[in-house]
Amino acid sequence: AVGTGAPLGTAERYAVHSAVALLTLTTERSRSLHDAESRLGAAVLRMLLDGEAEHAKAVAGDLYGALLEAPFRLIVAEPALAGTEQPQGLALLADAVESAAARAGEALLVVPEEGRLVVLAADGGAAVQASLDHAEALEARRGREATGPEPDELVVGLSAAVAPSGVAAAFKQADQALAVARRRGRPMVEHEDLAAGSVLPLLADEAVRAFADGTLRALREHDEKGRGDLVASLRAWLSRHGQWDAAAADLGVHRHTLRYRMRRVEEILGRSLDDPDVRMELWLALKATSPAA
To answer: What are the C-alpha distances in Å from 79 to residues 69, 88, 111, 246?
Structure first.
């Protein structure tokens, strides 16, 4: 009777009201079920982060249980622009991974958490691939438009594959990858790429450069007054792993001259070059302030 030009009778009006009531009830139940699943997912994630993998499996039951029986990866996403509240970007990513998982029959855990999105997805599965495709599309759009991040864009960090007992480590990995993605202006960074690459690109961070400049300032001021080449000598000595003859040959000086310069470095800095931590910090400072850094 609905949609016809004829007036509705009593029976038809009753049927329409009943249908509306049933649709409203179904919608409310669906919303309540979704909220309950979200709370359960958050509880399972918290247990995993606290190292209670067996309890998490018991609570997850059939809903997430299959996900916790095989290696999975952890995805952390947040708005690319600081201060963005309830961004559309998080909803779009959640929809992308949930749709991909549903089509592939994969279990998936999606937890909104304080303006971020945390996802546990099967390693090598459709949901992980969907997150990679989503980030690739964002990067391609930014490249075409030659602009910075839009309000709906994200930064995403992706952990290595872990077992349930390794979720805390995976969360840290994803968080670190996300921080690097933000610094580099990338939509997504995988932690495995960081571990496989060189640490040198990370030295371009302004905080690292500030630390490096402060560490070497006293030596540079000494050299600028024409009282020796301490910075160059330190670089040569460290690059030769403390081998006096080889480092002295690189500099074209006698090894006793180099020994004297390294003693002056220790005196000026007030630190011992016998300490491996000191040598490491000085080498990183030299690399961070080199023209190629």
So the answer is: 31, 9, 15, 51
